[in-house]
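Narrative of activities, Objective 1.

The group set out to show that a structural description can be obtained from nothing but a protein's sequence at a throughput compatible with the screening campaign. Below is one input-output pair from the validation batch, recorded exactly as produced.
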Amino acid sequence: MIMTEIFKIIAVLIIIYFAFSFLFQKDTWTGFYYPDETDLTQNTQSAEFKSIDECRNWVNSQVYIFNPSGYGYDYECGKNCKFDKNYQLYICEETLH
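Output recorded for this entry:
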């Protein structure tokens, strides 16, 4: 009887923990920079950023380094990206330019 109550309390605490984690999760943004817009297999990936603006600033720094003319590149900023081992690529909730 006591063990059943303990398991119920633990289950409730676990549910509360995951609910709060999901509700208060901070979004992260990851940049993917393609220096040659005709070859999207070659890219540079950023660290995680706290905002889309930080990601875009990183992209601008990559343009300055790899495409100073300002042409011939492409990029994506992805929100809450996770690497999918099955497909061997990043899956993002949202992707913006």
